[in-house]
Amino acid sequence: xxxxxxxxxxxxxxxxxxxxxxxxxxxxxxxxxxxxxxxxxxxxxxxxxxxxxxxxxxxxxxxxxxxxxxxxxxxxxxxxxxxxxxxxxxxxxxxxxxxxxxxxxxxxxxxxxxxxxxxxxxxxxxxxxxxxxxxxxxxxxxxxxxxxxxxxxxxxxxxxxxxxxxxxxxxxxxxxxxxxxxxxxxxxxxxxxxxxxxxxxxxxxxxxxxx
Length: 211
Known about the structure:
Blueprint: H1 5-23, H2 30-37, H3 41-48, H4 51-76, H5 82-99, H6 101-113, H7 116-137, H8 144-163, H9 165-170, H10 179-198, H11 203-208
C-alpha cells in the first residue's frame, strides 16, 4: 500500500516527538527519526528540510492550536461572561495537551531551556499569549503587576502536569493524558479561577510589591 503524503509527514512528526522526549532534541539524529518512522531520510528533507525545520514544525503546530483556543474565547467575551470564556479556553487547552501529551512535554521542556532557536520561533506566540490572557483575566490593565501574577500562576498550573509527567506517573500515580485526569484537574482549575477572579485587588499591596 502506498503511503499518502499526509500520513508520511505525520509519521515523521510522531516519531520525532517520541524520540525528542526519550533522547532529547540534541541527542536525536535524522537517521534515528527516519528509522523510527520507517521512511527514507530524503522524506524528512522534503517535508522539513532538516532537524531544525522539524523542530519548528512541532512548535508551530502546538502553538497555532494553543493560541487559537485563547483567541476564540477572548473574542467571545463581548457576548458571554468573561470567567466562563476563560474556563472554556483552559479546558480546551488541557484537552489538547492531554491528546498531545508527548508533544506538550517536549515543547514546554524546550521553552524552559530557552535556546536561541526556540526564541526565534515562539517569541511572537508568547507575546500574543500574554495579550490574550490579559483580555480573559481583566477588563483593563490598570493593575499590571496583579494581572502578570495571575498569568504566572495560571500558566504554571496549565503546564505543570505535562512538563512533569514523569513525577505525576511515578510519584502521584496520575496520568495527564487520561480523560479522567483532565476532567478532575479542570475542576480544580475552575475552583481556583472562581476564587482568583473574585478577589479584589489591594492597591496598597501592589504599590509596595517588589517588582
